[in-house]
Write a structure and sequence with these properties.
Blueprint lengths: L2 H23 L3 H6 L11 H13 L3 H18 L9 H11 L5 H15 L8 H8 L3 H14 L4 E5 L15 H12 L3 E3 L4 E3 L5 E3 L4 E6 L1 H10 L3
Antiparallel strand pairs: 1-5, 2-5, 3-4
Length: about 230
């Protein structure tokens, strides 16, 4: 047998062993995520070898994956989830790849929440776009997104005072440069959109605003779905 084929088989066997070891260490989560049999697979079938090597290639840091699965397990227990579903391979592999290179704990937890939502058979299925969006977020972006999601209520709109009407006394501090950059990024990703202000004219033709002169920020339907998937209620 050529040496390159021997090396490929050896590497495949190592990948399967690592997958099996992780599955045992993490309480069987590899099987739950990628389907039954991956932990106990042997290097006899080419499909098993390719599958194991692809999973291994998506995992940058095995310790971060173990921590991710610990958080996922805790999240599912907290929600009382008993029925799991398999996620599309192209979604879960991209999610695992991004989550295992994430060392900011706040964002790492969002990845765990997203994976838990994807596995929860009762929740809406997560889209590949959610993985792309989360990979583009910084910890600075996550904070205002949480706050806006919490404040918007049923209307989906949060209002910021423009400072035009001096009679309005608002306790909300002026947005920092960092917050403005984050809001711009959240808008770029399609999670937020500018709100609108309704105007009318009086008998003299003077333009008046319907309600206080404030600037609105709307969480888009995509933003609401994304927040639901990554931010605990």
């Amino acid at each position: 047998m050529p040496s390159d084929e021997i090396e490929a088989i050896t590497e495949s066997a190592k990948a399967l062993q690592e997958a099996a070891k992780l599955g045992r260490d993490a309480g069987g989560w590899i099987n739950r995520i990628f389907g039954p049999g991956i932990e106990d697979a042997v290097a006899l079938h080419s499909s098993d070898r390719v599958r194991a090597r692809r999973i291994e290639a998506a995992i940058y840091d095995w310790e971060r994956l173990t921590e991710l699965l610990r958080k996922v397990n805790a999240r599912l227990r907290e929600k009382g989830v008993r029925s799991l579903r398999l996620m599309p391979t192209k979604v879960v592999l991209a999610l695992i790849e991004n989550a295992t290179v994430e060392y900011e704990d706040d964002l790492h937890t969002l990845w765990a929440n997203l994976l838990a939502t994807g596995l929860d058979a009762r929740a809406d299925e997560i889209h590949r776009q959610f993985v792309s969006i989360l990979s583009d977020l910084t910890s600075n972006d996550a904070k205002p997104l949480r706050e806006l999601h919490s404040e918007c209520g049923d209307s989906g709109v949060v209002w910021f005072h423009l400072g035009i009407d001096r009679r309005l006394d608002r306790s909300r501090p002026e947005l920092s440069t960092s917050d403005k950059i984050s809001l711009f990024n959240l808008n770029r990703l399609g999670l937020l959109a500018p709100g609108t202000i309704d105007f009318r004219t009086d008998e003299q033709g003077t333009i008046e605003a319907q309600g206080p002169l404030e600037e609105g920020i709307t969480i888009t339907p995509l933003g609401i779905a994304f927040c639901k998937a990554v931010i605990p209620e």
